[in-house]
Amino acid sequence: MNGMVYLVGAGPGDYRLITLKGKQCLEKADVVICDYLADKRLLAFAPENVEYIYVGKKAGNHAMRQEDISQLIADKAKEGKCVVRLKGGDPFVFGRGGEEAEVLKQNGINFEIVPGVTSAIAAPAYAGIPVTNRKVAVSFAVITGHEDPTKGKSDINWEKLSTAVDTLVFLMGVGNLPHITGQLIKYGRSADTPAALVRWGTKAEQEVLITTVGKAAEDVIKHNLKPPAVFIVGNVVNLRSTIQWFDNKPLFGKNILITRAREQASRLTEKLEELGANCIEAPAIKIAPPDDDFTSLDSAIAKIREYDWIIFTSTNGVERFFARLNEKNLDVRALSRAKIAAIGTSTAAKLKNYGIIADKVPTMFKAEGILDVLKEDITPGTKVLIPRAQKAREALPQGLRRMGATVDVAETYCTKMADTNKAQIKNLLQNGRIDMVTFTSSSTVENLLKLIDNETALLNNVKKAAIGPITAQTCKQKGLDVDIEADIYTIDGLVDKIKNFRG
Ligand code: SAH
């Protein structure tokens, strides 16, 4: 009863550069055996109960011998399991994937190879350097930079290699540059040939060093550039001055702490990462059922057809309302009599997903503004339902009641502290590894402070970005200066402000 092994290329760094097939393999894995270079975020694709084994090899620190790794893969498969062997870049490009496949074959175990995007091509690409170019380079070679120079005899034919191929890409070569560049020059490559090192290519921490073959070894020491990096030699390096596209994005190099409910963090993260930021998600809050266990919502749903107006105040409120409605075996037709107001365009957009076009969409977030928009619709006796978060501000229902309406407030959800790796977040803050923190509601402020045990000093050198005036006010009340405040109180509005922030 043998299992199955997939030797999967994880891609060069950015976890999104895995292939669709690689992701599918992870989704059905029982065991994932992982390298130093494979991004931990890929593990999120695997089932929750997956067995995860780290066999990482870092330069100079061999966690596990190759023979033992190959044996481990075979043993796990013999237990009948689906094993994903995840390897940085492509498994067959200096990944020793071939050796692992041989051992599997010898053991009679079924396997498949899932190629990956190799760092040899992707790291240069993310530095704006194409390995070939019709006018500049018609050939490229990928070479190990790891050869032991004291070995005496080299497996690399330096004499032919040095001048026969236009672009040379060395992997694992950072510690060996004096030898590599010495050989290249000795066998005829000009010392003036443009060269580049790309460290952690495709990732938010990418570093690029532009140099020449003659100067590379000393420049690497001068700039203290560490592995992992690819070393690129050839005239294609000059193209970076025109093609550079990744590490000049507006937020490149910025580390941003996102405090948001987990369900919503991804959109903000996605948008900031598109702009080049490195986002660390600390889901300070999560969405949970209200403390009254839906008592107020259920009684509102029981008489849902009596309401003249239903006012939705947040996307979460919309989602949770319809989830509960469906649990009661009702659908959107139950709302057919009521007029609908959505506060804010995101709330209106969320309603559209349920087939509802809101009758009114007040975009101001202060109760007075909303009341102003609704004043012609609300007359004495109008029955209003507000499905919303527990512990929301009272100004809106109170204002409506003053206008003569009968108002029911139904609690559809509450926001709770999520279990987050507290120590990890505090550690990043202590070490100055966070440039900015985002707050998308007052409770994210409160919850982040809880997470860091109210040590506001940890945030002294961190820029604070708030989604709107109410959140900003909460920050100030808690003794946090706000550096960025969105003018339009939406995720897009916040992202736009962060993008244009200088300081
Ligand atoms: N199979 C991998 C290479 C493994 S050898 C691939 O196809 O990419 C390990 C070497 O790859 C490192 O020493 C470094 O030279 C290179 N490397 C891997 N990921 C890299 C990255 N994100 N940026 C720069 N170099 C990288």
Structure description:
With 503 residues, this protein is an alpha/beta fold. The chain has four domains: 4-116, Cobalt-precorrin-4 Transmethylase, domain 1 (3-Layer(aba) Sandwich), CATH 3.40.1010.10; 121-248, 2-Layer Sandwich (Methyltransferase, Cobalt-precorrin-4 Transmethylase, Domain 2), CATH 3.30.950; 255-284 and 418-499, Rossmann fold (3-Layer(aba) Sandwich), CATH 3.40.50; 295-414, 3-Layer(aba) Sandwich (Rossmann fold), CATH 3.40.50. It is 33% helix and 21% strand. It has 18 helices and 22 strands. It has a five-stranded parallel β-sheet with strand order 3-2-6-1-7, sandwiched between helices. Helix 17 (469-477) links the parallel strand 21 (463-466) and strand 22 (484-485). Helix 2 crosses helix 3 (97-106). Bound molecules: S-adenosyl-L-homocysteine (SAH). S-adenosyl-L-homocysteine binds at residues 12-13, 37, 87-90, 93-95, 118-120, 123, 171-172, 198-203, 227-230.
SSE blueprint and pairings:
Elements: E1 4-9, H1 20-27, E2 31-34, E3 51-54, E4 57-58, E5 61-62, H2 66-78, E6 82-87, H3 97-106, E7 110-114, H4 119-126, E8 140-144, H5 158-164, E9 167-171, H6 177-186, E10 194-199, E11 207-212, H7 216-222, E12 229-233, H8 240-243, E13 255-259, H9 262-274, E14 278-281, E15 285-288, H10 295-302, E16 309-312, H11 315-327, E17 339-342, H12 345-353, H13 367-374, E18 383-389, H14 395-402, E19 406-417, H15 422-430, E20 436-439, H16 442-451, E21 463-466, H17 469-477, E22 484-485, H18 491-500
Parallel strand pairs: 1-6, 1-7, 2-3, 2-6, 8-9, 13-14, 13-20, 16-17, 16-18, 18-19, 20-21, 21-22
Antiparallel strand pairs: 4-5, 9-12, 10-11, 10-12, 15-19
Bound molecules: S-adenosyl-L-homocysteine (SAH).
